[in-house]
């Protein structure tokens, strides 16, 4: 296809006198590389044309280097070279084992990847059967052609025409059959996944683990701060020092057409500016219906990206344009819970940091109690990055102790066991203090539940309500957000509207706030708090204050309430209940709509807490004070829970 021979005499070019010994060899070498690259038909046509041009250009001219670089790039792109997927009877168990070894939890992501592998394997079996049928038909076709040659030699001239026509029709029919069979081959369209979650939860390392499980090559492209469309699509060859874009460069680097490509931090890619819109350039790359014909400006030939498995990562969906988001399959990775962090630390982080710091496993005894204290008192994050840093700090301290004892000639004085009391020596004073459920209670104080916005952590939150002589004013403190303030107002309105049924006033027309004001406070005043999930706790706290009945201190509650008193679903149930268990809570009141979230809780939490579901605030009040008698019960007034 490609000819690397010398050009005709008298033509000034690659074979001229200046480079007579060297340049033709270089061109021949380039022609061989292009031949070996198995270019697509369109790329082969362009390469042949450019190679002819190259022979006519003098090596000293700038155009020579530009054309040669272009042809070298064409030769380096893996047009047809692929990694064989390790698909067999043991594919799925092996992939599951690989993913479980590398990452704890993340079941949704693992499930999606195993689904993809299963589909890939089934498609491969179908294609193998189709290939066998095609081979069989092609063999028949070859036999028919050979038979036609023999017959033509032997048959009489008058019969030859008829025989040839019949054979041609048979060959034509078989060729059509081959085309039909080829159309039955199943095309593999790799999924385009978007992993969304807070920093440090393992999105990037998960993509690498996927490549290992599939047995494919891995390439990472960092999109954070990319502001120029040309970085994605490449520069046109007319520019000086033009280069292909990041996608084509990645394919050149891995050398195969079906790698796993990680598009890291896709939410931080630049928007529209005078250099173009890089996020719009990604639309073609990430569209399974279009990316088999992706055109890089530098190459200017369609490249098939359909075999590439793209995995994008992001911390937030807010900055990703809607058309780009629509092209990806979004999988949310929540922050790790305390229990998950403890498991990750014991199974992965501690052994890794022991090796990194030059110690052996028998030289440091890291207990779950110590890891738990580091998680609760020294880190408050969704991922495990800071946890790994703190574990590293502790182990460096132990490494110093061991080295000192060894250098002093008394290694027996070194104590490998690490205790909770040692942590202050290595890490300083505790950075975070956990709220603990109180032993006693008084009217107006209720334990609520909170999930931190950083993800992965939850805790209890005390709600304190006090009254004083006044003019019916409501005062709110504790750095409360607008939604939380509105939640308190809804709770107060419901209590005022139902004061008579609650036995707080003597007659239905009496205002419970007449001559008094109330103050609602949430401790830890420096930490911003927001959200509607404390509505049920606010209402119960006000009933507790006005009725003089205390709420049991080991009981916590969460749920949004409406003006009718209905308790509606809230988020962060998993984190809140793990925080409640850690704080010593025994009973938790949850909205009935959150039953589905309780199913996903770790067994340890289900066993350690009594979980009660309520649909209406009246159900919660009756559960909190089961022995109390309410006027609404005596008079038989219908409960509003079905309104």
TrEMBL record:
It holds the Pfam family Lon_lid. Keywords: ATP-binding, Coiled coil, Hydrolase, Nucleotide-binding, Peroxisome, Protease, Serine protease. Residues 440-627 form the Lon proteolytic domain. The keyword Coiled coil applies. GO terms for biological process: protein catabolic process; proteolysis. Residues 1-10 have a biased composition (Low complexity). The keyword Protease applies. The active site is at 533, 576. Gene3D superfamilies: 1.10.8.60, 1.20.5.5270, 3.30.230.10, P-loop containing nucleotide triphosphate hydrolases (3.40.50.300). SMART domains: AAA. InterPro entries: AAA+_ATPase, ATPase_AAA_core, Lon_lid, Lon_proteolytic, Lon_Prtase, P-loop_NTPase, Ribosomal_Su5_D2-typ_SF, Ribsml_uS5_D2-typ_fold_subgr. Residues 120-173 form a coiled coil. CDD domains: RecA-like_Lon. One of its GO terms (molecular function) is ATP-dependent peptidase activity. Residues 1-27 are annotated as: Disordered. SUPFAM superfamilies: P-loop containing nucleoside triphosphate hydrolases, Ribosomal protein S5 domain 2-like. Residues 18-27 have a biased composition (Acidic residues). PANTHER family: ATP DEPENDENT LON PROTEASE FAMILY MEMBER. Belongs to the peptidase S16 family. This is Podospora anserina S mat+ genomic DNA chromosome 6, supercontig 2. It comes from Podospora anserina (strain S / ATCC MYA-4624 / DSM 980 / FGSC 10383) (Pleurage anserina). The lineage of its organism: Eukaryota, Fungi, Dikarya, Ascomycota, Pezizomycotina.
């Amino acid at each position: 296809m490609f000819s690397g021979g010398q050009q005709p005499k008298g033509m000034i070019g690659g074979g001229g006198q200046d480079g007579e010994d060297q340049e033709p060899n270089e061109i021949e070498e380039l022609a061989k590389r292009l031949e070996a690259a198995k270019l697509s038909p369109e790329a082969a046509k362009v390469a042949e044309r450019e190679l002819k041009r190259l022979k006519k250009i003098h090596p000293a001219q700038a155009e020579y280097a530009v054309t040669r670089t272009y042809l070298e790039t064409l030769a380096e792109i893996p047009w047809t070279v692929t990694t064989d997927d390790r698909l067999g009877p043991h594919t799925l168990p092996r992939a599951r084992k690989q993913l479980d070894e590398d990452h704890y939890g993340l079941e949704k992501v693992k499930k999606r990847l195993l689904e993809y592998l299963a589909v890939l394997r089934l498609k491969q079996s179908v294609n193998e059967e189709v290939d066998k049928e095609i081979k069989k038909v092609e063999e028949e076709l070859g036999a028919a052609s050979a038979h036609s040659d023999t017959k033509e030699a032997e048959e009489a001239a008058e019969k030859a025409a008829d025989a040839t026509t019949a054979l041609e029709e048979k060959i034509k029919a078989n060729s059509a059959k081959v085309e039909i069979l080829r159309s039955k081959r199943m095309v593999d369209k790799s999924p385009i996944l978007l992993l969304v979650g807070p920093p440090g939860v393992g999105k990037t390392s998960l993509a690498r683990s996927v490549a290992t499980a599939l047995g494919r090559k891995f390439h990472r492209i960092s999109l954070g701060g990319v502001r120029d469309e040309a970085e994605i699509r490449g520069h046109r060859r007319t520019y000086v020092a033009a280069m292909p874009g990041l996608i084509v460069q990645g394919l050149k680097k891995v050398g195969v057409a079906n790698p796993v490509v990680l598009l890291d931090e896709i939410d931080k890619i630049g928007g529209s500016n005078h250099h173009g819109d890089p996020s719009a350039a990604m639309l073609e790359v990430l569209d399974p219906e279009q990316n088999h014909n992706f055109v890089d400006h530098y190459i200017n030939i369609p490249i098939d990206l359909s075999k590439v498995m793209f995995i994008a990562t992001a911390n937030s969906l807010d900055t990703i344009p809607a058309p780009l988001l629509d092209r990806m399959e979004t999988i949310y990775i929540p922050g790790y819970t305390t229990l998950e962090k403890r498991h990750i630390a014991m199974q992965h982080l501690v052994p890794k940091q022991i090796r990194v710091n030059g110690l052996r496993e028998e030289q440091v005894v890291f207990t779950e109690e110590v890891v738990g204290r580091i998680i609760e008192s020294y880190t408050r994050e969704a991922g495990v990055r800071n946890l790994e840093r703190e574990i590293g700090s502790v182990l460096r301290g132990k490494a110093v102790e061991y080295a000192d004892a060894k250098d002093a000639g008394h290694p027996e004085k070194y104590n490998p066991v690490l205790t909770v009391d040692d942590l202050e020596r290595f890490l300083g004073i505790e950075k975070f203090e956990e709220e603990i459920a109180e032993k006693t209670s008084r009217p107006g104080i209720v334990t609520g539940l909170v999930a931190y916005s950083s993800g992965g952590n939850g805790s209890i939150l005390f709600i304190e309500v006090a009254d004083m002589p006044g003019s019916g004013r409501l005062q709110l403190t504790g750095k409360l957000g607008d939604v939380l303030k509105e939640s308190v107002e809804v709770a107060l309105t419901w209590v005022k509207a139902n004061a008579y049924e609650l036995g707080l006033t003597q007659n239905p027309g009496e205002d419970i706030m007449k001559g008094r004001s109330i103050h609602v406070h949430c401790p830890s005043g420096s930490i911003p708090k927001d959200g509607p999930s404390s509505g049920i706790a606010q209402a119960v706290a006000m009933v507790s204050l006005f009725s003089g009945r205390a709420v049991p201190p080991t009981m916590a509650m969460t749920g949004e309430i409406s003006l009718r008193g209905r308790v509606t679903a809230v988020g962060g149930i998993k984190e809140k209940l793990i925080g409640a268990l850690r704080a010593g809570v025994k009973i938790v009141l949850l909205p009935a709509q959150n039953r589905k979230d309780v199913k996903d809780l770790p067994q340890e939490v289900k066993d350690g807490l009594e979980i009660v579901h309520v649909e209406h605030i009246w159900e919660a009040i009756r559960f909190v004070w089961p022995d109390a008698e309410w006027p609404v019960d005596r008079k038989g007034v219908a409960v509003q829970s079905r309104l």
